[in-house]
Fold:
Amino acid sequence: MTADQWIALVAAIVGGALRVGVPFLFVSLGECLTEKSGRINLGLEGVLVLSAMAAFGGAYLTGSPWLGVLAGGTAGALLATLHGVLCSLPRVNDVATGIALMLLGTGLAFYLGKPLIQPQAPQIPALALGGWSDLPVVQSALQVNALLPLGVVLAVLLWWAFARTRWGLLVRLAGDSANATRALGYSVPGIRIAATAAGGFIAGLGGASLTLFYPGSWNEGISSGQGLIAVALVIFARWSPLRCLVAALLFGGAGAIGPALQSVGVGWGYHLFNTVPYVLTLLILVVTCKPGSVATGSPGELSSSK
Structure:
């Protein structure tokens, strides 16, 4: 390849990481918050798909992409709250409930979203970060989602809150020791329901990004398993919001390799490169989930989930 093609390839991968990584970022931050409280939500795929449909429908009906974003976050919070409430009942398994909620969320989205497959909804505006360059390929690649700065700020705020605020310490305490939390007079189910609902709202912003920015339309295959991948991404990030930011960009870049190669005329192996995020997920699970061991940084209550 020529020098210009290499520049175009790098720019396309970086731009793709910034676009594709945004849903990963919000969903992983939402799951990080949920798991920090000692609850795992495998229903994130359902949350992502339902919030994507709700965001697109909200933007289409109101004419405002930001009201669509709010609708997506609200839908994600409602489904996640249902998960949190159900898991607080006696003899209810977090994993089984999450799978059931994943099926419920995707089923509702497919049923309610059928009228939305053809229409177009107003999109989230793009931020032009490539003005410093005279190269059109760089300028095009750095047209980024306006939600990306919000995700970066949210990652920093969560990191700070977990370390410095009373609310963050309570979430961590509930995730590390339910008995200690109860001994201090706090409600473990209440903390976990609140954290799960907030995590669902954050994940819902990722769903809104899918239908209102990239790829910017609603269809039944919109998520491509990103909700489930985000669970592995949180493990990879060792339950750190700042590492979730880095991991999301890494996964976004991995997902952008195929389209980036195609953009510079390399057609071979296109579909093979599209499997890179899924291969990364498998590698993470194989490396980190060793029998008889607990991953570094894992909240103590996750190893004893119902």
